[in-house]
């Protein structure tokens, strides 16, 4: 029986951290394989996922017959959970499944949208290596799934750094937004030379205080540098940043 309080509401999918599903703040209780399947479908570039691809990703060590039976059971489990909540955004077909993305809310999408708009999402400012938390705890689900997950984390990292770099270079160097972009890049990559140069140049040339406590998670030497930059000429700040970072990594 459908719950009238949640019928028609979007499905909220959390993929940064342990994957969770909820509708109107009510958790959809399904297995890890079911959550992994839905997360994969939501993050995939394809509009439809074939059953062949899903069994190879989530049941790679099982025989084809057994894997397909497990997939059918998992899809039945998902359909039951969705039916109880009145969610009809999943369509299963003979050859594959289709997840209605217009009926989804995914935490990662919001972060990517903010980055594309030239803004650093708060989670990027306060979390070190955020892409590494993608589907946290799902690495041991299946060997094939782990390979996909590691590649997806790296792709996400590269996309975020590249997008933030583009907006940092295009924007005003004397704005709080630019500071946030550089800070977010350093949270993704603590040895990113361009972002490091930017923050040290800002600190030395304008004496701006750093507005947010984003330094947690960075190397201690870099934290000290951002708080107490050296008395060097502006043109030497890039070399100083690079040499200190290399020293801190040794």
Strand and helix layout:
Layout: E1 11-14, E2 20-23, E3 26-27, H1 32-43, E4 49-50, H2 51-58, H3 64-85, E5 90-92, E6 96-99, E7 104-106, H4 107-116, H5 122-126, H6 143-170, H7 176-188, H8 193-206, H9 220-227, H10 237-249
Helix pairs in contact: 2-3, 6-7, 7-8, 8-10, 9-10
How does this model look, in words?
By secondary structure, the chain is an alpha+beta fold. It folds into two domains: 96 residues, Orthogonal Bundle (Arc Repressor Mutant, subunit A), CATH 1.10.10; 142 residues, no CATH class. Strand 2 and strand 3 form a beta hairpin. A four-stranded mixed sheet has the order 3-2-1-7. Helices cover 53% and strands 9% of the residues.
List the main descriptive attributes of the protein structure presented here.
250 residues; alpha+beta; three-stranded antiparallel beta sheet; disordered C terminus; Arc Repressor Mutant, subunit A
How many angstroms does the end-to-end distance come to? 61 Å
Low-pLDDT segments: 231-240, 242-250
Overall pLDDT metric: 84
Shape: elongated
Q: What's the helix count?
A: 10
Structural class: alpha+beta
Question: Per DSSP, what share of the residues sits in E-state strands of 2 or more residues?
Answer: 5-15%
Count of separate structural domains: 2
Q: Could you tell me the radius of gyration in angstroms? A: 22 Å
Strand arrangement within the widest β-sheet reads 3-2-1-7
Largest sheet: 4 strands, mixed
Relative helix content: 40-55%
The arrangement of helices and strands along the chain is: EEEHEHHEEEHHHHHHH
Number of strands: 7
């Amino acid at each position: 029986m459908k719950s009238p309080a949640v019928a028609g509401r979007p499905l909220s999918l959390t993929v940064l951290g342990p994957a969770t599903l909820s509708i109107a703040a009510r958790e959809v209780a399904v297995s890890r394989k079911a959550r992994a399947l839905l997360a994969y479908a939501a993050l995939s570039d394809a509009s439809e996922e074939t059953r062949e691809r899903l069994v190879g990703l989530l049941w790679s060590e099982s025989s084809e017959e057994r894997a397909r039976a497990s997939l059918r059971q998992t899809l039945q489990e998902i359909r039951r959970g969705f039916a109880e909540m009145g969610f009809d955004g999943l369509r299963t077909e003979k050859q594959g499944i289709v997840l209605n993305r217009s009926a989804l809310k995914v935490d990662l999408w919001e972060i990517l949208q903010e980055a594309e708009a030239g803004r650093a999402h708060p989670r990027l400012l306060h979390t070190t290596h955020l892409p590494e938390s993608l589907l946290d705890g799902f690495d041991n689900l299946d060997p094939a799934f782990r390979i996909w997950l590691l590649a997806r984390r790296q792709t996400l990292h590269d996309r975020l750094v590249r997008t933030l770099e583009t907006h940092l270079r295009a924007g005003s160097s004397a704005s709080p937004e630019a500071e946030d972009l550089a800070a977010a890049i350093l949270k993704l990559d603590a040895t990113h030379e361009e972002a490091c140069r930017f923050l040290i140049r800002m600190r030395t040339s304008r004496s701006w205080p750093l507005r947010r406590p984003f330094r947690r998670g960075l190397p201690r030497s870099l934290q000290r540098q951002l708080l107490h930059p050296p008395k060097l000429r502006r043109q030497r700040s890039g070399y100083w940043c690079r040499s200190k970072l290399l020293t801190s990594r040794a």
